[in-house]
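pinging the channel bc i need a second pair of eyes. not urgent but kinda urgent?? the chain im working w is below, pasted from the shared doc
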Amino acid sequence: MDNNTIKLSSNTVGKPIQCRAAIARVPGEPLVIEEILVDPPSYLEVRIRIICTSLCHSDLTMWKMKDFPGVFPRILGHEAIGMVESVGEGVNEVAEGDIVIPCLMPDCRECVDCRSKKSNLCSIFPFKISPWMIRSETSRFKDLKGETIHHFLFVSSFSEYTVVDIVNLVKVDPEIPPNRACLLSCGVSTGVGAAWRTANVEAGSTVAIFGLGAIGLAVAEGARLCGATRIIGVDMIPEKFEIGKKFGVTDFVNSKSCGDKSASQIINEMTDGGADYCFECVGFASVVHEAYACCRKGWGKTIVLGVDKPDSQLSLNSLDFLHSGKTLIASPFGGLKAKSDIPDLLKRYMDKELQLDEFVTHEMGFEEINKAFDLLMEGKCLRCVIWMDK
């Protein structure tokens, strides 16, 4: 990317910026594009100009949510790429003009968890769905009437400018196409990482994936990169199989056409005892149970990525759990450490190892953002990239 294609003015440093943002003012109602004010960055914060952003199911979920952590008015969006406009006091990791990817998972590189290879859950800044900046319960947005506008997942990329803490930013190679790099802010990274980092899928293994949306397909891509020889996709929409083949899916189970058997029973029969790795990418406790049921005894792993309702519960028979020898594990952000793993994945894309192009089904301008919501709700897109200046 040519850094001259986006012009930044030093006249804005230390001052509020007036720009456009798509604001969710009422749960489930169309976003409203209006002018807002974005404050300058505070200590260890960075103000960035968004180049492009993509739409994730988490945005839809929070847009519809009427109770906390659903908060309004709010600027949604968390998959993006942008250019640094200015930095706050104490920031030395990035500078004006750098290209950065914001990430919902903090990576402070200082706490025991961030320094360990065993975890990506920062202990100084625990992940939470907060309507504020990560270090303080304050916002950097307000409308032209002075009303506070809330943040989302520490990113809020449905705005021409946003302010992000340095622990949520990754500096990346400016030569990488922004409409592909933005996908690694959340969804694709989560799926690929779940296979690569969390499950550590072995070459020659069998994988079952419940749910072939963007996350599930990213799991398939990760499993393909790891050398899995059999990747079974489970979904209710038969057309997903043809899409899945692009990412290495070899077999398909239509969960609506299993007759008197469950999908897990069919997979157990197909694999002579269960898959080595099962991934739940839907967000229902019942699907977690199905995935676990067709995970091979002794060494099988079931990895949970789907986001269920806050009060949903899992229930496993204690004796069966003990005797099965299986592993059940969650995979927040695919187990990835943003500052080291995102650049690695981008390099693999540039080296033509990792597929990203195939995830982008639509691209459009910022003014069409509500159309992007409609496409995702109707299941007509995997990822829709929204250009701020298209």
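so The chain has eleven helices and 17 strands. and The first helix runs from residue 57 to 64. — does that match what u expected or am i reading it wrong
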